[in-house]
Design brief:
15% strand, 39% helix, single chain, 8 strands, 8 helices, eight-stranded parallel beta sheet, alpha/beta
Length: 234
């Protein structure tokens, strides 16, 4: 029997985490401040969520909106945040930074990878803003711990990015260089996208707002997650 597809849900707190797990989420992405598209949560929040659920947690490493790591001092703060979360027991992460020209910020990425010392991590939707997606993948191909790309295929979301997502899934199936990490689709993802993505070989999905039918001011709905779980598995 083949392994079931992954459903990852954004969680802001322990209540979100419990609802997402009960709805059938396989993994959570932990963030704070969705007004800035998700920043690094406090260590205390991670600890409460870790105590509440037993599924894998990927913690965002990002201290400001956008896809640049910022100044050297900001990069220091990011590394310090990663160190603190590791000390708290975090062992999976989400990050990704670009230089001004749209190429991967290897200095910051390599620094974080060194701090994480083998932890698994996702390069997030910065790939959708990259000057050259394929070149980014090739440059990051040997990064320790990198096992996932979170992508919509386009900065505008899955509607626009569908052809890119399907092409990248085909490249992964061929074993092309740089396409080893799993494709995790998120960003404007809707239930009606699932049949096409599943038929194209994609088996990992990420939802945030879709798990909150009443908006970001309300907690995750276990029923909404259940609906996604059923649709993905059908």
């Amino acid at each position: 029997m083949s392994e079931r597809a992954v459903l990852e849900v954004i969680a802001l707190d322990a209540d979100d985490a419990i609802a997402a797990r009960s709805g059938g989420a396989d993994r959570l992405e932990l963030v704070t401040d969705m007004a800035a598209d998700g920043l690094t949560p406090p260590r205390e929040t991670f600890a409460k969520i870790r105590a509440a659920v037993d599924i894998p947690l990927r913690v965002m490493l990002r201290l400001s909106d956008g896809f640049a790591a910022g100044s050297p001092a900001e990069a220091d703060a990011l590394t310090e945040a990663a160190h603190g979360l590791r000390s708290e027991g975090a062992d999976q992460f989400v990050f990704g930074f670009l230089d001004a020209d749209g190429t991967p910020d290897l200095v910051t990425v390599e620094r974080l990878v060194a701090e994480l010392d083998g932890c698994r991590w996702t390069f997030h939707r910065a790939i959708d803003r990259a000057a050259d997606r394929e070149a980014l993948r090739v440059r990051l191909a040997d990064m320790p711990g990198l096992d996932t790309y979170l992508t919509a295929g386009s900065p505008a979301g899955v509607d626009e990015g569908m052809p890119t997502l399907l092409a990248e899934a085909a490249a992964a199936a061929r074993g092309d260089a740089g396409y080893g990490p799993r494709i995790l689709v998120g960003g404007g993802l809707r239930l009606e996208h699932l049949p096409t993505l599943r038929a194209g070989g994609i088996d990992a999905f990420h939802i945030g707002g879709a798990a909150r039918p009443h908006g970001w001011g309300q907690p995750v709905s276990a029923q909404a997650v259940r609906d996604w779980r059923a649709a993905i598995d059908s």
